[in-house]
Structure formats: structure tokens, C-alpha cells
Amino acid sequence: MAVAHLRNVRLAPRKARIIANMVRGKNVSAAINSLRFLNKAGSREFFKLLVSAVANAEDHGEEEVEALVISRVSVDQGATQGRWRPRAMGRATKIQKKTSHITLEVSRVSAAQAPAREE
Predict the structure, then answer these.
(1) Which of 18, 49, 52, 75 is buried most, with the most CB atoms less than 10 Å from its CB?
(2) Nearest 5°: phi and psi at 65?
């Protein structure tokens, strides 16, 4: 089991959870291929995070990288940056620039456990 964290990424948690739901439970190689060609805003960040988690697994002594499955992905809301947009009659409204904290965990799954979801 290996974990990779990505903190304060400039991506709204609502949009990051869409990508997280797409890769959760998938085999690592299938998830890397799907993220490489996914046309979503945060797919590049998820791709780099997944490659980092696989490298952490190799560093921890995992021999079979092909047998790794994304066991847990969590997306939490980070700090919100505030900006101001000028409006009519001298007023201003606040723009919320939301950030996310993403945690990705990969682990090895044996044949007796649930099979990996590959789509």
C-alpha cells in the first residue's frame, strides 16, 4: 500500500470528485491510460499524483506494479482564495477561487478479492 497527497491544487473539489470517481477502483495501468487522454481540467494533476503513488509503492518494496489497484481516492476542500469583480454602480462581488486536497492510495489486490474494474 502506498499513498500520495496533493495539497492546495487550484481545482474546485466538485470538479476533482468527477475525476476521482472515474479512476476509483481501477487498475493502475488502466487509470493511467484513461487519465492520459481525458479532456478534463484536473486530469493532468491526477495523472501526476497517480504516477507519484506508483513510485512510492516501488520505493516501499512493491514488486508487482501491474497488480496495483487504486483502492482509495479522497477529495477535500482546501482554502478558498477571494478575488473581487467590479460590478455596476461602483459595487463589487466576491469571486471564490477554490482549492482541493487530493489523497490517492494504491494497494495490491489478490485474485481472491474483488476484481479490478477496467473500462
Answers:
(1) 75
(2) -75, -30
User: Order of strands, edge to edge, in the sheet holding 92-108?
Assistant: 2-9, 92-108, 68-86
User: Is residue 110 very low, low, confident or very high in pLDDT (cuts 50, 70, 90)?
Assistant: low
Residue written as grid cell 507519484: 52
Measured CA to CA, the distance from residue 56 to residue 74 in angstroms comes to 18
8, 20, 69, 85 from 76: Cα distances, Å:
10, 11, 21, 26
Return the CATH number of 2-108, one of 3.20.20.70, 3.90.470.10, 1.10.150.130, 3.40.50.360.
3.90.470.10
CB atoms within 10 A of CB 25: 18
The string of pLDDT tens digits covering residues 4-18 is: 999 999 999 999 999
